[in-house]
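Hallway conversation turned thread

IA: we were arguing at lunch whether anyone had actually written out IclR family transcriptional regulator end to end. Turns out nobody had. So, for the record, here is the sequence (239 residues) and right after it the structure tokens. Reply here if something looks off.
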Amino acid sequence: MDNHSGVGVIDKAAALLAALEEGPATLSQIVTTTHLARPTAHRLLLALEHHRLVGRDPSGAFVLGPRFAQLAAAVGEDRLVAAAQPVLTVLRDRTGESSQLYRPHGDQRICIAAADRTMGLRDSIPVGTTMTMAAGSAAQVLTAWQDPERMHRTLAAARYTAADLGVVRERGYAESSGEREPGVSSVSAPVWGTSGTVIAAVSISGPAERMTAHPAAMHSTAVVEAAQQLSEVVRRTAS
């Protein structure tokens, strides 16, 4: 295959990234592999590093950057959303409560799929709604398995504690009542990505007078099973 597009800087950047597909490499190794001039390779690697397309491992060697994982997650998210709707609908029908799927969105979380109650009191959370990461069972789930630095930053303003998150990790789900909004209870469970990180949270929510102050007693099994179904979808689509 012809690796020359006619746009020199793009071809050189592509050659550098291709060299890193084999794993970490020093600048000298990359120059040997790509046959680029050392100053050119170094300049382009630093530019790619600025855009997080290239990173460094603990030894200082160049590696593919975290932006690739984010881009892959964005592609997978479309599949996740498509798979989520029937799962959330079954979860709603099984529990009688509105169901949602949240993913992290910077320092907040965003609802990317939902199934509302079809009759009676509706507790609608429209797709696209952003919510705090400082309160609510979904926020607890999305925080519980974060890297320590981000977790501590979130905990600084959270209505839950590090001990609460330890319980979430132990049980595999979170519950809350009146934490995010007075009179609202919820139960959430993690959706796992292929890299062993939590990429989303399945949740149900409704009035505390109906779900009680401890909604997990009634609904944790259904919520966990829905989250496991979506985790399996992620694994299948990645293979």
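OS: looked through it. The beta strands are 54-56, 62-64, 98-105, 108-115, 130-132, 174-177, 184-192, 198-207.
IA: good, adding that to the notes. The domain at 8-65 is CATH 1.10.10.10 (Arc Repressor Mutant, subunit A).
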